[in-house]
Specification:
The structure is a homodimer. Chain A is of the alpha+beta class. Chain A contains 13 helices and ten strands. In chain A, a hairpin with a 2-residue loop joins strand 9 and strand 10. The structure holds a DNA duplex.
Chain lengths: 339, 339
DNA sequence: ATTGGCACTCACGGCCTCGGAGTGCCAACT
DNA sequence: AGTTGGCACTCCGAGGCCGTGAGTGCCAAT
């Protein structure tokens, strides 16, 4: 009973604060939400919530504001994702379906996400699909060590050292090299996994272990985010919070300017398939202490391709952001599959 | 004599205002710059400059602030571009030389430019170089009208209608189509002009007019900015101007979020080879009324490839921005040529 | 456990004052 | 004519001073 109401109070505080961006007091709370109790009772609950670290007051005799911990609890326990309206879904569909190519899809996606959430949106976007193999080389370093050199048509060069269980004969190496070259060179990264699917089978059984290792290494190199890109959109939404934003938006913009940071934000996704929310200092990027990041993953076929998400102030509409990220990720996945 | 001093005064005002972002008065002016006259004289000059529309006062009994027109005059007449220090040049060289591929060059360029100017930098970057022709089709619409359909390997489709001076025989059309396909399909855009250089010559003299038209149309389509991209960097610098920035930075960010706007900014470059400066409302983008744009062009070989530039408040360091844009454009050109 | 009452706190907005920087004008000087 | 010093005037902005009101914590009563 008591605990239930406390949660309700927390939810109400978050809701109000998100809506108004102003500390919320006990009286306003009972008026706006129909909790069937008096302000005094709420005050007690608030004191308890403050003790537990979920809310805080900017100064004595001001209303309460949720802490990062408060948002965390709110997100974990209270949010029921509100599905998008059917009108929204239709709009998304139309907007996305008119995309021309991969670049266009990404640009549209980021626009869409920024629009839906009214936040800064980011879409990670493996250029895998556009790179292709120019050449591949296998060099023997010692009897059990190989170096694989992969030359991408963008001019980039990737090197890997491969440790083999058993010594490799020069002949096998030459054979493997030749067949590998003829199989993958000129092929776009995206098709390499397919092309190599049955590659090992054509070798003698005793060599398949080694071939498998080499193939696996190559696949790893190709699948890895070699040449990733992140598109950013809706940065203007940051400016909306004027002075209300804790501190200036400058550090945030600086952070978002760094590809590396964006990658990290988008990379640190929970293994679970759903949407991840990182609140305030849960982001280990210092400049983003006052922001929350909502990320999701999208895929093509049945392999995960990359992530997308939004960045906004901690006092954001989590329910909306989560459902938008989820929905957009789904649509992108669908569009990619259709292509 | 008089006019000379007035220009000196204007320059001093711009210098001071750029440095301090505060309206500059007559007394401060004579103190900081050693104009050999008294404040009263300066006041007279200021009054004249104000009459002519070069400066203005935010309110009575405040110092003067340059108008857009004032900046224009300043840029046109007074700026002597200060060359970069040799240390700067070396740093640029090192930074740029370690670029891996085209993408990397662009990312580095935009970073560099933002760093040097402490402004928002943008680099236009024709993906021409990366697109290639998948297929080309010629369809007869009437005896003198053709439709050319160009399919790019990114999946994009370009259509052009070609009006011919004389009727075209089916046979010529079929021949042209076949030879065009075999000549350009699979070729990267960048090589198409070269590949088609002597294409028309292999046709019968009486057909060369038509073939020339078709080739010209194709070249146009290929050379045109079909699939251009713009990278943006240093947006954080906008936030530096806090409230000092006329109005909020939101509209500016919004504008910069739009590829289309960026294209326009970078596209409207004076035909002259040098650096173009557009000040305040000289940009016909409304949101950028309070900003100036400095753009330059870079090239690969001897054909102009694309533009780069910076966007900042009208009270920016024009001399620095101009020289930085110029220098970076030169370096990019050099790097591209070396590749 | 909940509630009404009460005294206390403190940010915020309005109001006023005052200093100072800057101006325009005018008369005097070169 | 151009330059200069003097002078009265304007007006922004910082600082100080309330009064108000929302909000709190505590306590006694239900």
């Amino acid at each position: 009973m008591v605990d239930d109401r406390r949660l309700a109070v927390l939810r109400a505080i978050v809701d109000d604060y998100v809506a108004t961006h102003e500390p919320v007091g006990s009286k306003a709370l009972v008026e706006r939400h129909n909790l069937g109790v008096s302000p005094a009772t709420i005050r007690n609950d608030m004191a308890a919530l403050e003790d537990e670290g979920f809310i805080t007051q900017p100064h004595t005799s001001a209303g309460r504001v949720p802490t990062d911990l408060g948002y965390r609890l709110f997100v974990d326990r209270l949010t029921q994702v509100k599905p998008l309206s059917s009108a929204e879904r239709r709009a998304i569909q139309v907007f996305m379906e008119s995309a021309v190519d991969l670049d266009d899809i990404m640009v549209r996606t980021v626009k869409l996400l920024a629009q839906l959430t009214q936040q800064v949106a980011m879409v990670q976007y493996p250029s895998l699909a556009r790179s292709s193999v120019r050449h591949i080389e296998l060099i023997s370093l010692s009897s059990t060590r190989l170096m694989m050199v992969l030359i991408v048509d963008t001019g980039r060069v990737e090197q890997r050292v491969i440790e083999c269980a058993a010594p490799i004969s020069d002949q096998l190496l030459a054979d493997l090299r030749a067949r590998l070259i003829s199989t993958v060179s000129g092929k776009p990264f995206s098709s390499v996994p397919e092309v190599l699917a049955r590659f090992a089978e054509s070798f003698a059984p005793e060599d398949q272990g080694l071939v498998g290792t080499v193939v696996a290494t190559l696949l790893e190199a190709v699948t890895e985010r070699i040449d990733e890109r992140v598109v950013l959109g809706g940065t203007a939404h940051l400016a909306r919070y004027g002075e209300a934003f804790p501190l200036s938006i400058q550090p945030v913009l600086e952070a978002l300017d760094e590809q590396v940071v964006l990658m990290r934000l988008l990379g640190e996704v929970s293994s679970a398939g759903g949407v991840t929310v990182r609140i305030g200092h849960e982001n280990d990027v210092e400049a983003l202490e006052a922001t929350s990041v909502v990320t999701g993953r999208y895929s093509r076929g049945d392999q995960t391709v990359a992530s997308l998400g939004v960045v906004g102030p901690t006092h954001m509409d989590y329910a909306g952001a989560i459902s938008a990220v989820q929905a957009v990720a789904q649509y992108v996945t669908r569009i990619l599959d259709e292509q």
